[in-house]
Structure formats: structure tokens, C-alpha cells
Design a protein that fits this description.
5 helices; elongated
Length: about 90
Amino acid sequence: MDGLAERSRLGRGSAFRRFGTRAGIFHALLDDERACQQSMLSGPPPLGPGAEPIERLIAYGRARIPFLRDHLPIARAALDRSQQVR
């Protein structure tokens, strides 16, 4: 939190009020995932509706694997260790 506050030129209290916890920061960073989800729900085929199931599954893997590779440290850090991972 201190590093975030310093780099963003905010006070530490402002960072805590905005994000609540360290995990809150990571959840904000994972907003990219929402864009991927939108593509699956309402985007064009093959990732979105209208493609054959196998085509959608392959498109999902092609979209998801690079996302996880690029965001793995953030995704891991965003996990709340007090909750069971599904």
C-alpha cells in the first residue's frame, strides 16, 4: 500500500479508502478479465455466441491462457487466503 500511495502521489489513507485492502488493489487490476467475459457473453464468434461449441472452447483457451500467463502474479495475490479456492 505504501508503494502504491507513493507512486500514485496519494496519501496512504486515500489508497486504503479507495481499495480497502491489498486484495482490493488486485481486484481492480483484474478488470481486464471483465472485458474477456464480455467477449464471451456478447462478442462476435468464435469466442462469443453463434459459433459451434468446440470452436468456442478453443477460442476460450486461446484467450484465457495468455490472460492467465500475463496476470498470474496478480491473480495469485488477489486470492483471499481466508477463503477456500473453488
